[in-house]
Amino acid sequence: ELLVESGGDLVQPGRSLRLSCAASGFNFGDYAMSWVRQAPGRGLEWVGLIRSKAYGGTTKYAASVEGRFSISRDDSRSLAYLQMNSLKTEDTAVYYCAREYYSGDCHSCYYGLDVWGQGTTVTVSS
Amino acid sequence: DIQMTQAPSSVSASVGDRVTISCRASQPIYTWLAWYQVKPGRAPKLLIYSASSLQSGVPSRFSGSGSETDFTLTISSLQPEDFATYYCQRGKYSSYSFGQGTRLEIK
User: Fold this and answer.
1) Does B31 contact A98 at a Cβ distance shorter than 8 Å?
2) Which of B28, B40, B38 is nearest to B4 (CA)?
3) pLDDT of the residue at A102
4) Considering CB atoms only, which of B51, B55, B100 is closest to A43?
5) Does A55 touch chain B (CB under 8 A)?
6) Given phi > 0 = left and psi -120 to 50 = alpha, else beta, which region is A57?
7) Which residue of A has its CA nearest to B30?
8) Which phi and psi angles does A91 have, rounded to 5°?
9) I want to staple A47 with a disulfide (CB 3.0 to 4.6 A). Which of A35, A67, B47, B92 is the partner?
10) What does residue A113 show for φ and ψ, rounded to 5 degrees?
11) Which residues in chain A touch residue B44, judged by CB atoms under 8 angstroms apart?
């Protein structure tokens, strides 16, 4: 069970960037995928998620990125994407993708983010 | 939005000590809480899910408890490899959020 992020780069403020998350070793389509970031010297910040097709492929976002970032998935290729537009210097961070087994059948259950990638670095600077 | 607040922000302890970290939600969140361990340069590691369930492969010295607004992570007997930063996270519905982290340092 492996997740590998790619696409991190140095970009200017206001520009766009797309990150990819490639999954292997498990049935990607059964899982929700989250993106989490950690800015230098800061704590973890949840960015957003996309649920599995069984739960409508619903997306949710943190307020700090709502309207600028979007998450999508391609189950046929076991890929998740984070499209980042109108980038700001405060978006500079290591970005991780992580999987979650989401079940609407168990009201009390939250299974957490159990598999993480190694992270990809995004630097927003002029 | 629901805020997650951890206490303390840092703690110093010795090998063999028992350590407790608290996490408080600004609104009730049932048992939709997870705990993670983060070491520098490494991806976060899931320790506890559904507030009190131990993730597979995690040593039994880690335990979680609580529900609704008050949660606790306990390490019963600190080992050298446990010195790291710990985060709580709410999940399941709406937007997820992490606590600000608790840094566990060697005394």
Assistant:
1) no
2) B28
3) 87
4) B100
5) no
6) left
7) A108
8) -85, -5
9) A35
10) -100, 100
11) 36, 44, 96, 98, 113, 116
